[in-house]
Structures are given as structure tokens and as C-alpha cells.
Records
---
Amino acid sequence: MRTRLNVFIAVLLVAQSAMAQTGADRVPTDSRGLTLSDCIVSAKDHIQLPAQQAGVILLLETEDGLSVEEGFVVTAGQLIGKLDDEDAAARRDAAVLDHQVSMKERLKAESNVQAAVATEAVAQAELDESLDVNQRVRNSIPATQIRRQELTVTRSAMEKEVAAGDVEVAVFTTQQRQAQITVAEINVKKHQIVSPLDGILVQLYRKPGEWVSPGDPVARIVRMDKLRVEGFVDASRYLPEEIDGREVTVIIRRPNRDPETFKSTISFVSPIVEASGDYRVWAEVDNRTSLGSHWVLRPGMQAEMQIDLP
């Protein structure tokens, strides 16, 4: 019986030692801090840049003619390539010409309105003059001529209304042609490959001369100036409100280099407790370069995060 008891105690001690070792990276280092030693550096912003239009890749280079390759540093909104847009550019040029024609037709319609107004004014003046003469000297102007002048006034008024309607149609036509230009320009832009963020082009999936369909990835871009350091906190020891917003010190250990430290704050606390009993937290860290253009923090690295507890 004593032998079985001794075996049970030994197994219990081993289990407790294993549990203590598992949770060693999530226990406070002192009364004010919590150290997470198994953190991972990950990319905050990264994208597989897709083609927006079907076509053949015409070139992969910037507007300045610089060739785009892996490792190329890009900025948000920078052109890094273009699909063959000959057809799209021709459609845009045709839309511009149609808009110019519609503008001329609008000017012509407005001139017709001015002419109709002037014609109506002259016809009305002639009618008024004839009526005034007959009022002074009865039947000086024949009734048939008076009726013809009245008809001229009526016809001039109707022509003015028709001309005004033509102006409205011309305005709508001009707006329609302008909308067609906008659609054509959007179509041309969809043939451009533009980086949506600042970062480094880490992989090219296509080469000039290859065909792409909408949604096919062309390049992968990763933002490096701001990264994310993620870790897990023991839910049985620390409440989310104790961790959220707290200041942290991120420590990176690299081969043959002194440790590098970064200051930040906890910006996210997951509401989900994982099966392991931990919940995920992360801090966004401003990266910096070392030895030229090489970044200190890189996605996939391990890091240590010291959280300053209240």
C-alpha cells in the first residue's frame, strides 16, 4: 500500500512540475509585470495584389521605368505594372470625342433658343404695331394680315419651347457622355497594377506576357514599418480589463546581436478563450531598420512581451 502511495505522489509531483513549466511563460516576473515569452511577430497589413481585369501583363515597372522585382520597396498608390490596355484606351478616347460632340450640340441648342426668343419678340412687335394702327385707323391693316401675324407669334413661341426642350436633352446627353468617360477611365485604371499600401514586394506570381483573369494574384506586398506582436495570456490568472491598453516592452533576441527592445501598448484583447485556457492579445509595434535597410522585426520571428500590470 505504501509503495502505491509513493508512486502516486511521484506522478503527482511530475505532473505539477510539467504544469509549472507550461505556464512559466505567463507568470508575473515581479509584482508589476507579466512576461509572455512565446510571442510571435506577424504582419499587420499584407495583401496578395490581384488583377482587376482580364488581359495580358504588358509590363511590371513603375512610372519612372524602374523594374519591379522581389524586395522592391513600394508606396501606397504607386504604379508597379500594367495590363495591355490598348482597347480600353481607345474606348476612352471615343467617349471623349462623343462628349465633345455633345457639347457642340448643346451650344447649338442654346443658340436656337436665343434665335427663337428674338423671332418671337419681332413677331410680337409687328403684331402690336398692326393692332395699334387699326386702333387709330380702323381696318387700315387687313384682318388676314393680322391673323398671319398672330400665327407667326404663336409659331415663334412654340419654336422657343421646342428649342428649350432641345437644350434640356442636350444637357442630359452631355452628362451621359461625361458618365461614359468616367466609366472608360475606370476601365483603363483597372488595367493598372497599383500598390494599396506601403511595404515590400516579397513575391511576384506573374511575369510580363502572361495572361491573368480578374482576381488572379500578381504580387504579394507586406507592410514592414508597423508589425504586430501576438501572445497568449492565462485566462484563469488575468482578466481582459487588466491587460487591455497596458504598456508593453517587446524584446527581440537575434543571433550575434544585443537584444532589441520596442515600446508599445496592448491594442487588442480577444474575447475568445481558447481550448488551452488562454486568450490572445497583441500589440502594434513601430518597426525600425538596422544595418542599412534591413528591418529588425520580421514576420515569423519569436519575441518576448513584458506587460506592465497595474
---
Amino acid sequence: MVDRLVSSRNLDAQLQAALPPATRTLKVSVVEGLHVLDLRHLAGGAAAVDEVLTANHLTALPKPGTCLSDDPWQVWIGPTQSLLLTAIGRVADDVLAKLHPGCNGLACVVDQSAGWLVFELLGPGVDELLPRLFDAGAIPWHAGQGARARFMDISAVVMRVTPDRVLLAVERPHASYAAQWIGHAWRAAPGSMQTMATDCAVRDR
């Protein structure tokens, strides 16, 4: 069984303090309870991975620069590697059972749930925020795009799942650092300050 991902209270407090306050144009939150599975295969092993995915009614392995579906999400991160992210325990358990290391000579899945933390960026403000965090060539501008990318000076996986919804996955030791950069970048964005001022004025009426 895959245990539900639970972060420490101390980490939760640090993240919440660092993340920007929600506005009408952007809400940033941590996606709780996600299973993160690393699907790997050698030459000739992609078919074994596709077979397991198909048995769980999932799309076959994603192509370069793409992310697939909506929980479970799949994203291409290398020629022989992709990530599957899901809150559905049954799917995670089945993929792990059928592709656990050692059961197939050409493919396997590694449970990396404890090693990743996923942020959800929601709202039209994501188009203003992302250029402050990624190089232009790494930004997924359209739904269905995703890849491993350089986030400031760390590695991350970024996925545009809908026009106004982006998932950003980072290795858990960098979670607080990532949250601080997200908060700093959004507060520095000109449009965010205008939105915050408008929201405050509305609340004060």
C-alpha cells in the first residue's frame, strides 16, 4: 500500500507563511495526498509500461513536452522516464504492484511520493507569475504541456493542466525555498499589487 503523503506541521507553517495570499487572479496551494510514481524503462520496455497504464484506463506514455489527463496526471521528463501523479490510491497501488522493481527486466516504477511536494497555481495570474520563475522556453503556455525544467536554481516539473491551472512539483527538501520564491515573484509582479489593493478595497466596503 502507498501511504498518504503527510507533511510535518513545521513545514506546513513555513509553506503557508511563504506563499502569497490568495487574490482574484491567483491562488497558490499545496496539493495534499498525491502519490508520485517514477516510471522508467529501457529500450524495448515502453510497451510494458503502456500495458499497465492501459489496464488502469490511462493514456499511454506521454510524448516529449506533454502532460496527460486530469488525475492521474502523466508528464514526460526524459526519453525513458515519466512521472505519474495521482490522489487515487487504487491506481497507484496497481501500477506499483505490476511494475515494482524486479518484476520486469525492461521497466519498473519507483514510488517517490515522500520525496516530492506539489504546488497548485490557479487563476489567470499564472501567466504573469511563470515568467518570473522559469526561462521563457521552459514555460508551458498551453494546456497539455509539461516537462522537467529549471525553477530558479533547482530542478522542478511543471505542468499546465488547464489554461488557468498549473502544477509545480519540486523535491521536498526544496519545498520552503520554492514557496519563498513563488511568494516573492508574485508580490513583485505589478499586476498582483493592483489586484491586492482592489481586493482590500472591496473587503473594506
---
Amino acid sequence: MKELVIFDLDGTLINSIKDLGAATNFALQKNGYPVHPLEAYPMYVGNGVNKLIERALPEDFRNKENVELLKKDFKEYYDSHNTDYTVAYEGMPELLKELQDKGIKLAVASNKYQAATTKLVKHYYPEIDFVDICGQKEDIPIKPDPSIVFGILATAGIKKQDVLYVGDSGVDMETARRACVDSVGVTWGFRSAKELRDFNAGTIVDTPSQILQLITL
């Protein structure tokens, strides 16, 4: 049985795509750029706010200066509106509670900036005592670099073979591969099952209950 489960946040624990899209569109519109339908945003997210904004900008305007300018406006809006439409995925609160009751340690590893990661995890999962909640920090490379996972392992005091990493994207599966931990790809998130297979997901599940079965084998 696994001793620690590390969860991605957006697309795994919470469906946040509408709020992410609305914040990005706010920043784009404020600076005179065209906005995108919210349905386009699942393919823009997953690599942190800088990459989200870069992808949303018109190709000829994708430079560091514009990204930093729009990121400021994005955060201004998102910090006040990041729970407008976001919801926990069905079955996830119950899964995490059951894992916690079984004595399994839980953690979050996200490319969302740290302040928003902490706020959203505590808002949607207030009853869960995570051993670590890790978002994007200036001094730590973003996923798929495995540094975020290594930091969680050090905090939790758990060996790699006793860890399961759960996420919804190729970035997550690559993070797990580089960290040399077992991975589970979930199909209810922002990316396709094909992407999960292409990035060598250890297992692919369609419901949270299937994760419980894997962990307790």
C-alpha cells in the first residue's frame, strides 16, 4: 500500500478552468488584446501562469515584457475571483477523506503560484491535513521538473517507491517519470486520455474510487 499520494491541483482536485479563463481574458482585454472562448483554455493551462499568458497572447506579442504586464492584471483579477466558478471534482473530497482516515499522507504539487494554490486547497479541502501544499515558487523550477516532488518527499519523509502521483496532463505524467514515482492519470481533467497515454501514465482512471483501489492493493 502506498504511504503518500501527491495530487496535482487544477484539473485533478478542482475544476478551475472558467476562473482561469476569465482572469486571462480580463488581462487580455484590459491591454487591448483579443480574448478567447473559455472552451479554449484547457489547452493553455498546465505549465504555470507565465506560459498560460504567453499562449493566450497573439503570437507576435509573446515576449517577456507583455507576459509580466498581463500577469500583474491576471493576478489582480484572479486573486479576487478564483472561487467564482471553481468546484471540487465529484468524489474527490470523499476520496481524500478516506485516504486520510486510512493514515495515508496527502500532498499537492501545482504549477499555480503558491498563494493561490494554498488558498484554493484550503478553501475546497478544509478537512484535509496535507503534509505539504506546493505551488509555483520563484526559486523552484516548475513541473515537469521533479524538484517539487523531491521537496514533498523530504518533508513527508517518504521513499519514492511508496509514493503515487496523480494528475490530469502530460506535464504531470512526465513529472512523475522524472521523479521515478508511480503515476496515475485522470480523465476528468483538462487533457485527454491520449495525452496521458502518450506521456506513459502508469495507470489511467475515470473515477476517484479507482484511485482508492490502486492505493490499497
